[in-house]
Amino acid sequence: MEAYLAMTISPQPELPWLSVIVLLPAIGALVLQLFQENLNKRENVYRNIALGFLSLDFLLILVVFTNFFNNNNSQLQLIERYRWLPSIGLEWSLGVDGISAPLVILSGLITLLAAAASWKIKNKPRLYFSLLLIQASAQSLVFLSQDFLLFFLAWELELVPVYLLIAIWGGKKRLYAATKFILYTALASLLILISGLALALSGPEFSLNLTDLASRSPSGTFALLCYLGFLIGFGVKLPIFPLHTWLPDAHGEANAPVSMLLAGILLKMGGYALLRFNVQMFPETHVRLAPALIIIGIVNIIYGALNAFAQDNVKRRIACSSVSHMGFVLIGIGAINSLGFSGAMLQMISHGLIAAAMFFITGSFYERTNTLSIPNMGGLAKVLPITFALFLATSLASLALPGMSGFISEITIFLGITSQEGFTSIFRSITIIIAAIGLVLTPIYLLSMCRRVFFGPRIPALAMVKEMNPRELSIGLSLIVPTLVIGFWPRVATDLFENSTNALASLINTFNTIAILQSIN
Predict the structure, then answer these.
(1) pLDDT, tens digit, for every residue of 10-50?
(2) According to the model, what pLDDT value does residue 515 have?
(3) Residue 305 and residue 322: Cα distance in Å, rounded?
(4) Cα separation, 197 vs 390, whole angstroms
(5) End-to-end Cα spacing for the chain
(6) Is 459 helix (H, G, I), strand (E, B) or coil?
(7) What is the Cα–Cα distance from 461 to 229, expressed in whole angstroms?
(8) pTM for this one?
């Protein structure tokens, strides 16, 4: 376990910066409660306060992590450990490495933009923006926690705001979608808790510290059961087939800002947790189950793409495309080498930006057309040329057009599979061919949607809708520009996590990976 233990050497910070990053949005939610409900134009006051706290938090993330990126980011840094409930071993323990840092930045950016996109919230604005702020704290805590119980509490905490945001501000079937979301994720959380506590009790001493748990490196049937518990629990959030059915319903009923959070951040929690728990804590078991993970990823890609064809609702079609794109994350994790892990990280970052942009732009023209039904829209390119340009750009990024981040992430994953000598040539070829079919299907369902929505028969009732305003344009560009930057200069992203993914691959290679895979093949 030397490769992992080397990642845990870290100095104690002079100031608790990570704690400030986590708690600042929650403090903002408390500040909102100090205002009276009967304030004039209260939605503006609440929104501006939320934007102020989220802007400050995002700026703090960038400043604090600058020093981190200038150092060897394969190591956990800025470790903060405070005794919280010693009787049950719970610690307030935070740390950041190359796997968590990019996702914290992504979380900060998308949450800030989601709050900015919530411009027309009139119903219970104080509660709405308080939930957004609490969600921001919970998201950061998930990525930064170094104590299992703290991680689990944060994992559970972020479910509550999402449930309420869908149930109160969603569409006509919002209660059904919110209930389905909470049932799926709560049942999955039970498996996470059981697996984590079993691992904590498995050593000579009870410990909830993630570093201690990883150093145990269990094997055999016990490791397999814990691995599967984590896989199913985290797989619901990713989501993996057949645990994905909550996602189209949630996206279909949630408003655009909440969909930005769902697609841009919540799905990435599942991929992050698979790397943090399944790969780091059960490396030998992960090697043995890597082919199965790749097969599940292939099913995700094809099933999600085919399911997208059947959707006549714009948001549900984009949601199904998210299921397809998360299949590439599974394949990258299953490649068990540095290229595969890097590709999985790139795909999470890329998809977070692209999907958030697509849902935001969809929400923008929904506010003008009051419909998400593809057959009920047409000819919008003439009346919404800027909206069309942005939506087409995000669609091209999603279908992995060269020059955009989606292409870089998916080609890296393909290279990861082809360079894994432990897989037979037949397995690698079949994986590449089937995954490539998904790449062919993606432009068909995305570009056909663009054609029908923006170039179909003109709907007279939509002839006078207004174009995007400068605020909406700036939000859209804030998400699209990074996809172009990463597409042309991938090192902007890969330099953030390259050392960590290399260290993760080194951990895997401490086992005879090729021999294990060849014995399975």
Answers:
(1) 445 557 889 999 999 999 999 998 876 655 556 688 899 99
(2) 55
(3) 9
(4) 46
(5) 26
(6) coil
(7) 51
(8) 0.93
